[in-house]
């Protein structure tokens, strides 16, 4: 007599995945009268070689091939197999549905439990160790090397920020202070006077009295035809503001103020010596303003 294995028929009540996740399996495509034992991809959960401690130890830390700079260079940027491709709408919908199912994305209980756990760990948190931070920096620098955001991506970001408007969480003073405290705890080397952009706390200094006059600002806007004066403007933001060429808030003379969009104004915060010379030459060629060169050293 031949011995036959019991088939999983539709009449059975326990048509659940064998990995123990509790989800129902689908009907077999090969056999119309049978049901699958696992959901697609769940077989690895029970037969995963990485669950063996000896095998897992070979891929931990430095031994992990994804921590090797040569391997990362081969799989990042244009060498990545998914470079230049776009996900279909069906795949995007599936990803959004799976993210919505995650309990920690919606409940406040998980957030409270996570904050308490972070407080208990304190300085012993792995992401606060200098060795781990340096390793993550190297991995991110190699992975993001040479990658630039497309114009379409930048436009989507600007549209999303405009949709928030004044309701953006970073425009609420309480959230700003909380972000500063968090940065001081996580990265004390990048906060306050230790920041590479620290200029002695000049951001808290007041502007000159003329700057409070709205008519004065309107005159500068009319002079510049209500346009961003940066010839290399990316066209990301439509909001205009006044920019101080020498970064001195108390120097509000017309020769020191020009109209820029918010994006170009934020770009001018880095490499200030370059932008000072750039905008002084621009104002001289356009309006004939003369400037005294500051000698350094």
Question: What do these coordinates show?
Answer:
The chain folds into 4 domains: 7-59, no CATH class; 104-142, no CATH class; 150-198, no CATH class; 206-287, no CATH class. It is mostly helical and 297 residues long. It has helices spanning 43-46, 53-57, 69-74, 89-101, 108-121, 130-143, 151-164, 173-186, 214-223, 262-267, 272-287, and strands at 240-244, 257-261.
> How many strand elements?
2
Oligomerization category of the chains in this entry:
single chain
Topology as H/E string? HHHHHHHHHEEHH
How many H/I helices?
Answer: 11
Largest sheet: 2 strands, antiparallel
Radius of gyration: 29 Å
Question: Could you provide a short overview of the structure?
Answer:
This protein has 297 residues and is mostly helical.
Characteristics:
two-stranded antiparallel sheet, 39% helix, mainly alpha, elongated, 297 residues, 2 strands
Topology:
Layout: H1 43-46, H2 53-57, H3 69-74, H4 89-101, H5 108-121, H6 130-143, H7 151-164, H8 173-186, H9 214-223, E1 240-244, E2 257-261, H10 262-267, H11 272-287
